[in-house]
Amino acid sequence: MKAPSYLLDTDVLSHLIRNPQGAAAQHIARAGEDSICTSVIVAAELRFGAKKLGSIKLTRRIDALLAVLNVLDLESPADEHYASIRRDLERKGTLIGPNDLLIAAQARTLGLTVVTGNEREFKSVRALDVENWLV
After folding, report:
1. Which residue in 14, 39, 44, 112 has the most C-beta neighbors within 10 A?
2. Measured between alpha carbons, how far is 45 from 97 in angstroms, rounded to an integer?
């Protein structure tokens, strides 16, 4: 099994759940399933969304998706990247959401490309590769 290259963000996985044959699925097929992963932070965001909606059907779909995905734990030295990224963004006055900041730090630590429809936030992070598979 090869190491993953792409970390899928919440909006991409949400799109995949809603649209299993859509743009995200087509990109995954081209990239190869073992080249993708997600973050435990993304998993938490997905699970929160299902709990907030109170949807058993959505919870089951999320469970099924996360069962087949490589879900990465947040580990050091992501904390060092977090501190560096946050300092840089504060200096530029371009803060991003706290979960996106953690996802960016994790991806940058591991040399992964963040796959998201939320390019604006992630592209403000220096030395982070970002792709949009939803367009």
Report:
1. 39
2. 13
